[in-house]
Structure formats: C-alpha cells, structure tokens
C-alpha cells in the first residue's frame, strides 16, 4: 500500500470499537511503515522501517491509544503475554490527533534518516513509501485483557495482560 494515513485507522476504530465498549477488550493491529530507496550503484538499497503495535481501549467516553515499537522481523505473539505500551492518548476527542502523532513522528525520523544520503522522502522517484497493516499480523484483532486499575500518567506507560484473542462471528437474524 503506497498511501496510508491515520484517518483510515480512526474511522476503522470508530466502527469496530465504539465508545463505552467492555472494559476488558482492546483492539490491536500492527502498522508497518516502510520507505525504500532502490539503487543499482555501489551504495545499494537504503531502507527505513518501523513496525508499531497499536492497542485501542474505549471503556468510556475516553479513548486510550497505546503503542509499542516492534523489532523489524519478529512475529508478535500476544496470547498470555504482559506487554508494556507507551500511552499516546487518553482523551474524549483529541485521541484522534495526539494519539496518532506517531504517524508524523515516524515520518520525521524517516526523513532525517534519508537526508544523510541526500535523498528526499517527498519524492517517490527517490524514496518509495510502502505503509499499511503488517502483511502477516497487522489486521485488527480483539483481545480479552486485564487492564491496570490505575495508569501512571507521569511515566506514560501501561502494562496490559493479554488473555485470549476473541473470535468474531457474523450472525444473520
């Protein structure tokens, strides 16, 4: 996918996990940010990649957006795991902007990386963007979890215990 932005994600969240959802449910997905400069010269290919696990929690009017940067190649197993996330947002409406500021932050890091090679990520003929849900594990999943009763707002860290993946079924009535 060459074009992918936070508006697609925000709309998906509003549809899949409405406000006032069960306190023990989070929606997760992995976003793969990937820029590549292809070259046949000696210096070869240059790439910048970030894989980010996103967890969304909406037990009230407020929405928590939590992220964890993943290793590039590792699969991400959540079942029976306790994972520490960075809390990006816990707001009623501003979660849409500050919760997804990591999109822009990641873009800035990629821009800085390619600048050292005199490459411009704004020019697709120099650097090719490929962003979207992770090919193997990125599609959205619902999880039954144990959320902490209190969140340390100073450290902006949240530990979530993932209990089991919830299977969805569509029933015609």
What does this structure look like?
The protein is an alpha+beta fold. It has one domain. 17% of the residues lie in helices and 36% in strands. It is built from three helices and eight strands, in the order αββββααββββ. The protein has a six-stranded antiparallel beta barrel. A hairpin with a 5-residue loop joins β2 and β3. The longest helix has 15 residues. The chain is elongated, with a radius of gyration of 18 Å. The model has no long low-confidence stretch (mean pLDDT 86).
What is the number of helical segments per DSSP (H or I, 4+ residues)? Answer: 3
Query: What is the arithmetic mean of pLDDT?
Result: 86
Largest sheet properties: 6 strands, antiparallel, barrel
- Our count of domains comes out at 1
End-to-end separation:
36 Å
Strand content: 35-45%
């Amino acid at each position: 996918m060459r074009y992918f932005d936070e508006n697609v994600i925000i709309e998906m969240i509003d549809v899949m996990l409405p406000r006032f959802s069960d306190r023990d449910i989070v929606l997760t997905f992995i976003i793969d940010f990937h820029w590549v400069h292809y070259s046949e010269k000696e210096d070869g290919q240059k790439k910048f990649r970030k894989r980010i696990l996103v967890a969304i929690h909406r037990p009230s009017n407020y929405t928590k957006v939590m992220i964890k940067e993943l290793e590039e190649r590792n699969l991400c197993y959540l079942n029976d795991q306790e994972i520490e996330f960075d809390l990006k947002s816990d707001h009623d409406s501003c979660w849409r902007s500050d919760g997804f500021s990591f999109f822009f932050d990641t873009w800035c890091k990629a821009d800085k990386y390619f600048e050292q090679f005199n490459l411009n990520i704004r020019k697709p003929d120099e650097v090719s963007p490929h962003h979207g849900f992770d090919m193997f594990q990125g599609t959205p999943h619902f999880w039954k979890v144990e959320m902490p009763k209190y969140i340390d707002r100073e450290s902006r860290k949240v530990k979530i215990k993932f209990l089991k993946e919830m299977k969805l079924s569509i029933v015609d009535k």
